[in-house]
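LAB NOTEBOOK - FOLDING QUEUE
OPERATOR: T.R.
BATCH SIZE: 2
PURPOSE: Compare the predicted structure-token outputs for two unrelated chains run back to back under identical settings.
PRIORITY: normal
REVIEWER: second-year student, initials M.K.

ITEM 1
FIELD SEQUENCE / FIELD STRUCTURE:
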Amino acid sequence: MRNEASYIGRCLDSILANDFPMQGLEILVVDGRSTDGSREVVASRIGGDPEIRLLDNPAGIVSTAMNLGIRASRGAYTIRMDAHSEYPSNYIRTCIEELERTGAESVGGYAVTKPGADSAIAEAIAWMTQHPVGVGNAAYRLGRGDRFVDTVPFGTFRRGLFDKIGLYREDLVRNQDYELNTRIRKAGGKIYLTSKTNVVYYNVPSISKFMQQAYNNGAYVAHMWLSTPATFCWRHGAPLLFVTGFLGGLALGTLSNVIQKILIAALAGYFLLILTASVHISLRRGLKFLFLLPGLFFFCHFAYGMGTVVGLARYPFVRNTRAKNIPTLQEL
């Protein structure tokens, strides 16, 4: 949790409303030095629910928070949850049952993205991040459950897993889940996405925050690729191909009419694709989104791709003070 005062109360209430026995749970809220009153919201819940504990995360990022929480935990299972989300009443029970039934090393429910504000822009962002043109073949975003996948939005694990493969990489500010899941798969484990439960996630509310999120995701996916090449995935690489092709075509098009024609044809195909996706969404969600979605698709792909370009370029020069090795469960 970091500055989630608007969401952490609902998140905790949804966890406490689960049909799993409360005496079998410990809820560790790892706070990245919030300044918006989030800690006070958690403190108000602790008084009535002693199973909730508040831990401090000075580094302020997800990977260090996860490692602090895992090391402080005592249970046989670890469920990584997000303070910006809510969980149905069957979430904990279902994830543990599916973990044991399938023999997987990680299980999660599919993501249901909801608008982060009461506005047409926020709604459009939510709808496009649940469409293949927006997120590729990410099964957990498309609601394609009951299958083994490359990643799940969060994850339920047996505690012993971390003795085998280590904890979260603390040099990864983003994409730490995907890197961990890659290690699981490389070690012969499987990741299962169930349709029996889901995670409700609230998306960013504005175009500026959406582009910033896309840019940062792209920048850190480059860091992940270069430090761990096995994490490369085509859906993460598609925006990079789009941006380099677009910018390269503009530059080389000044030298060749053939390249100009190829660029025009490629852009026409791209805009036809995002227009088709926009119509598809608008017919289901409302025609008002038809005028917003093409631009949002473009901004998302371009921002993500530019982030990846910058991330690749700056990687050799960035001095990262966090350890690049994989932390172990025993380290303090």
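ITEM 2
FIELD SEQUENCE / FIELD STRUCTURE:
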Amino acid sequence: MSDSAQILEYVTELENDAKSIRNQILKFCWHMRGGLTYNEGMALSYSEREQIAELVKENLETTKKSGLPYF
């Protein structure tokens, strides 16, 4: 593989990673109903995002088990 092809592949991978992070942050903002702004979300570390994702997952499971609405 040529250097330019490797660079293109790497840049594409980084773009996909950035898109995934933006998507995750937007979901956090929605789930937290304004308790987290987009800018605050973008300042979170990987570890913090992982912890919030686990919290959201747990809350969704609790809501499903309780039968309460989740908007």
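REVIEWER COMMENT (ITEM 2): Residues 3-66 form one domain.
FOLLOW-UP: none requested
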